[in-house]
Amino acid sequence: LLLGCELTASTKSYTFQVDEEDDSDHILALSVVCLTDGAKDECNVVEVVGRNHENQEIAVPVANLKLSCQPLLSLDNFKLQPPVTFRLAAGSGPVHLTGWHRIIHREDASLEDDDLSEEDEEELPPIKPAKK
To answer: Where on the tree of life does the source sit, at the highest rank (predicted)?
Structure first.
């Protein structure tokens, strides 16, 4: 599934979350962060707000965009675990974020594990020494 949202002076944050009762694994990957029409030549800082392994909220800046020098940043599918909030920490935007959301159903994951175990059982030919 594709993800897209826009952060502006009036909409400074966007939260992506999934149903807690959902038994699937979710991967959210951020691909591109860019300034769009109407952006001023000012620093626009986008940060990701999530939770660490101790369940404490942490905010990490992922992009600092300025129209005259860096209007676009590719994040190469930066993977995140929902719930996650994207926040415009500085600037007035508009900043557009794009990415994708992958849902892995638990039964699909168990089938993948079965496929891997069958491959592991497959016998490999012995390694022969190189000829001199």
So the answer is: Eukaryota
The number of domains in the chain is 1
Closest CA to 90 of 37, 15, 38, 39: 39
CATH number of the domain where residue 53 is located: 2.60.120.340
Q: Is the pLDDT of residue 78 over 50?
A: yes
For residue 50 the two structure tokens come to 């999530």
Q: How many CB atoms lie within 10 A of CB 42?
A: 14
- What confidence tens digit (pLDDT) does each residue in 21-76 have? 666 777 888 999 999 999 999 999 999 998 888 888 899 999 999 999 999 999 98
Q: CA-to-CA distance for 33 and 4, rounded, in angstroms? A: 10
Q: Tell me, yes or no, whether 120 lies in a domain.
A: no
Residue 55, burial from CB neighbour count under 10 angstroms (0-12, 13-18, 19+): exposed
Range of the domain at 48: 2-104
